[in-house]
């Protein structure tokens, strides 16, 4: 089942085109990453999915239902973790989660159990009666998540949930995302931290200036921007190494020798790694270090847009 | 159900806020104390004096009864001054030198007043009305049964009229009585701040977006907020009333339910005002500044700090009609002191029309855009 389907979605704010003919499909059970710099259109896209803002043109279906006709059903089954911590500092952690869960129609025993479950999930059970004003940034972020999951939504949207927190809390949140996905929720995860998206997302859309400029798995995305593999080999001495011999290996396009490191660039679709290693063994040249350069999403973005993600 | 959820959240947020509670409860109590003590010991500001002029062209029985009546009421702080010239009496009332003018002619008394709703005028009129009603009743009995008069004698009979008409109630309004009401209605005006912040906080804490992402309807949010803030301000008002009654001994009359109804109508009005300002001015501090500028002016015209009539300016008196607090204070004072409900519908109408206007405005603004 397609959890989200956007077709030719366009949204303008005055003269600014926030979303420009966006087409996007998210399958049930995915952790779907929306990657892009600030102003790319990620938050606008998720605001439309959540029914927070209208759109000018196109179609949006969530849970196979038209957002313009079944907004209430859709909203009931979505949990949103906003970019900014959105909690009440003077109410206790328990009261915060209870309030937001109540808005989704939970009551009585179910409400109590779900609130306790959500607090336990984010590791704040022992802080249930304390007010968030006294919490650390990471704890507030975790409570921010608890408020979004107590009603057990089918789709959880996390809008930059790790901004401005310590590495330990970030790891906790990333682990939580995986766990929530394992428990059956589909996740939409927006970020401009490509490492996070690479680490947890099963599929990724790269957005820029309101457009989806690339979409697919990480491997599919990286293959879009390069047709070569680059290997760095560090050896003790370059004596006996002949550049021409290396270039003669099947698939090798280029060889650069600098100090004790040799950079070998090969065609991606040619499997020649064994041949390269064998060359060094046959020459009795011990390899001290070996590194295979794989393009990351930053490279993908840079290649596609000519800019860095965090420019 | 979701309205109740939002309402309860608003109540908790306001009642948990120590700063708001200090301002809304401690401040008026301190002010009642300070103003009450200050004005009770100052000789030239006597809130309790009621000054009435009269012309006596009544028949013998009425004149005798009225003489005893004014002697008895003098003990209660109502001063009657005789004036011979009727036109001069009326002109004194036009100039508002006195609280009322009683003109005795034959068997009737005509009462002239200028300041509608002024509590001292209303008390004087109420006492004279009671006297006239009882006098007419007793003379009707006497005309049917002359033995009744013979047995008691005119003077004694009139004493009974006075005994009945002197009304078993407190007549002299102390400064504590006055400021308990006016400081309460004044601080309720500041309840508009809670209305502003109920909207502004959702904006600054970013929780508004989260609420709107839930299946709750905008009208449920608005109703929940208005009810929640209204209830919170009413709780604060109850504490002030309780404190002023049992610590300062302020008179809240015998019909507290009607007083509550008037107060609630004022609270709904100010909450509506605050909520709409929260939507119009998307900056809580700026909206707070605006309210801080407007409220003292509205309160001044409403007699919160000092009775408008005592200032002796007809211009300010006329201007005071534009302050909703004027009508609220007048209605409450009349219910407490005279048992007069004449001004209650006006006060309710003024407050509820303003409340409806601001709530509809808020609904319109909220529909157009989010917090």
Describe this protein's structure:
- The complex is a heterodimer of chains A (311) and B (371).
- With 311 residues, chain A is of the alpha/beta class.
- Chain A folds into two domains: 2-223, Rossmann fold (3-Layer(aba) Sandwich), CATH 3.40.50.300; 227-294, Alpha-Beta Plaits (2-Layer Sandwich), CATH 3.30.70.
- In chain A, 34% of the residues lie in helices and 30% in strands.
- The model of chain A has no long low-confidence stretch (mean pLDDT 90).
- Chain A is elongated.
- In chain A, α3 packs parallel to α5 (137-149) and α5 packs parallel to α6 (167-182).
- Chain B folds into two domains: 2-41 and 173-368, no CATH class; 50-165, abc type-2 transporter like fold.
- Chain B has 16 helices and four strands.
- Chain B is elongated and about 85 Å long.
- Residues 164-168 of chain B have low confidence and may be disordered.
- The chains are: A alpha/beta (311), B alpha/beta (371).
Concise account of the structure shown:
The complex is a heterodimer of chains A (311) and B (371). Chain A has 311 residues and is an alpha/beta fold. Chain A is built from eleven helices and 14 strands.
Net shape of chain A: elongated
| Overall strand count of chain B | 4
Terminus-to-terminus distance of chain A = 37 Å
The percentage helix of chain B is over 70%
| Largest sheet entry of chain A | 6 strands, mixed
pLDDT averaged residue by residue of chain A: 90
Q: Can you list the strand order of the major beta sheet of chain B?
A: 2-1-3-4
Helix- and strand-based class of chain A?
alpha/beta
């Amino acid at each position: 089942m397609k959890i989200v389907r956007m077709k030719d979605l366009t949204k303008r704010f005055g003269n600014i085109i926030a979303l420009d003919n966006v087409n996007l499909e998210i399958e049930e059970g995915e952790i779907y990453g929306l990657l892009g710099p600030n102003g790319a259109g990620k938050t606008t896209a998720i605001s439309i999915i959540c029914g927070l803002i209208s759109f000018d043109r196109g179609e949006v279906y969530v849970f196979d239902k038209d957002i313009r006709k079944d907004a209430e059903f859709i909203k009931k089954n979505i949990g949103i973790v906003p970019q900014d911590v959105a909690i009440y500092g003077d109410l206790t952690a328990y009261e915060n989660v209870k309030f937001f869960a109540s808005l989704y129609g939970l009551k009585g025993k179910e409400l109590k159990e779900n609130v306790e479950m959500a607090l336990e999930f984010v590791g704040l059970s022992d802080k249930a009666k304390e007010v968030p004003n006294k919490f650390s940034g990471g704890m507030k972020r975790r409570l921010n998540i608890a408020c979004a999951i107590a009603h057990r939504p089918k789709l959880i949207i996390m809008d930059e949930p790790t901004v401005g927190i310590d590495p330990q809390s970030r790891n906790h949140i990333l682990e939580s995302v995986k766990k929530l996905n394992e428990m059956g929720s589909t996740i939409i995860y927006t970020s401009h931290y490509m490492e996070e998206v690479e680490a947890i997302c099963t599929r990724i859309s790269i957005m820029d200036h309101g457009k989806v400029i690339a979409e697919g798995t990480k491997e599919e995305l990286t293959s879009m921007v390069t047709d070569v593999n680059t290997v760095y080999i560090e050896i003790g001495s370059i004596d006996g190494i002949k550049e021409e011999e290396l270039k003669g290996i099947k698939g090798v396009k280029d060889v650069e020798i600098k100090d004790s490191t040799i950079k070998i660039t090969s065609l991606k679709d040619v499997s020649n790694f064994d041949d390269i290693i064998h060359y060094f063994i046959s020459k009795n040249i011990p390899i001290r270090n070996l590194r295979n350069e794989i393009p990351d999403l930053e490279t993908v973005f840079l290649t596609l847009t000519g800019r860095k993600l965090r420019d | 159900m979701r309205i109740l959820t939002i309402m309860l959240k608003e109540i908790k947020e306001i009642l948990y806020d120590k700063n708001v509670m200090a301002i809304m409860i401690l401040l008026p109590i301190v002010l009642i104390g300070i103003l009450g003590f200050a004005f009770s010991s100052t000789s030239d500001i006597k809130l309790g004096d009621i000054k009435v002029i009269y012309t006596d062209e009544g028949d013998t029985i009425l004149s005798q009864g009225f003489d005893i009546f004014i002697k008895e009421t003098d003990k209660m702080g109502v001063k009657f001054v005789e004036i011979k010239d009727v036109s001069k009496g009326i002109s004194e009332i036009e100039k508002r030198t006195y609280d009322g003018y009683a003109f005795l002619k034959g068997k009737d008394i005509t009462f002239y007043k200028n300041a509608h709703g002024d509590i001292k005028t209303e008390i004087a009129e109420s006492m004279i009305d009671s006297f006239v009603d009882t006098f007419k009743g007793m003379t009707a009995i006497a005309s049917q049964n002359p033995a009744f008069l013979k047995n008691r004698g005119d003077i004694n009979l009139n004493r009974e009229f006075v005994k009945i008409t002197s009304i078993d109630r407190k007549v002299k309004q102390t400064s504590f009585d006055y400021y308990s009401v006016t400081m309460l209605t004044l601080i309720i005006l500041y309840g508009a701040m809670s209305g502003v912040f109920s909207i502004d906080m959702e904006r600054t804490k970013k929780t508004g977006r989260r609420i709107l992402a839930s299946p709750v309807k905008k009208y449920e949010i608005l109703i929940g907020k208005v009810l929640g803030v209204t209830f919170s301000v009413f709780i604060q008002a109850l504490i002030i009333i309780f404190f002023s009654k049992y610590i300062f001994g302020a008179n809240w009359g015998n019909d507290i339910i009607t007083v509550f109804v008037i107060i609630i109508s004022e609270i709904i009005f100010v909450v509506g005002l605050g909520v709409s300002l929260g939507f119009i001015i998307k900056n809580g501090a700026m909206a707070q500044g605006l309210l801080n500028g407007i409220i003292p002016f509205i309160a001044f015209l409403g007699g919160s700090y000092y009775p408008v009539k005592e200032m002796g300016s007809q211009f300010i008196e006329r201007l005071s009609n534009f302050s909703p607090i004027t009508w609220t204070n007048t209605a409450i004072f009349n219910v407490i002191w005279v048992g007069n409900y004449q001004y209650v519908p006006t006060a309710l109408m003024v407050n509820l029309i303003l409340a409806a206007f601001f709530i509809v405005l808020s609904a319109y603004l909220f529909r157009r855009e989010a917090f």
